[in-house]
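For reproducibility, we list the full input for the zinc ion complex.
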Amino acid sequence: MEDDLYIEQLEYGPMANFVYIIGSRSTREAVLVDPAWDIDGLLEHVRSRGFEPTAALVTHYHPDHVGGDLFGQHIEGLAELIGKKGMKIYVNREDADGVRQVTGVSESDLIRVDDEDKIQIGEVEIGFMHTPGHTPGSQCFRVRNRLVSGDTLFIQGCGRVDLPGSDPEQMFHSLRRLAELPDEVVLFPGHNYGGGPQQELGETKKMNPYLRIPTLEMWRQMMG
Ligand SMILES: [Zn+2]
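The corresponding predicted structure, in tokenized form, follows.
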């Protein structure tokens, strides 16, 4: 079934954000993960590959992932996307209000999802994992042996937990959960923060200190 899956990683913007296209080669449908920064360019790119975007998937509500205003600058994102091509936005229910506030999209544009929900495009199944910590509704996407992790897990680090809505203790538990995934799962992070664009999780478990902290007590000490 591997042959039906199309996945592509694109880097956009000054914060080195990764946007993902996950598509079905048989139906030519594609979902866009964290579409932001250059919506025309992204749509053009997806269509140049022969796919039609049918939904947006959001890892969390921060403007560099969904669009909105950040440090006085406007970042294109979900609002521009659905203005050009109507589609639903899949967001964890804990981050849904944040997405509405940051982007201005309306409730009817959203599909609020929970941990272990799934969607299907062609023969490609995408599973949602709720991994709170960076934000209350941060989520990762599991596609076969791939994990699209947003700002929960980077190759060499993890998302910040000192922001409004962050919760260091939840982050610890989310990272423990990711550390239990099989070694052969390939990690596709939300930013290009070093260590390469993707990595087998077995390697990340060895090299990333945040995945190596076994107890909450040690985590608390490390996070100060
Ligand atoms: Zn973030």
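Residues 2-222 form a domain with the Metallo-beta-lactamase; Chain A fold (CATH 3.60.15.10). Residues 156 and 207 are 7 Å apart (CA to CA). Both points were considered when choosing residues for closer inspection.
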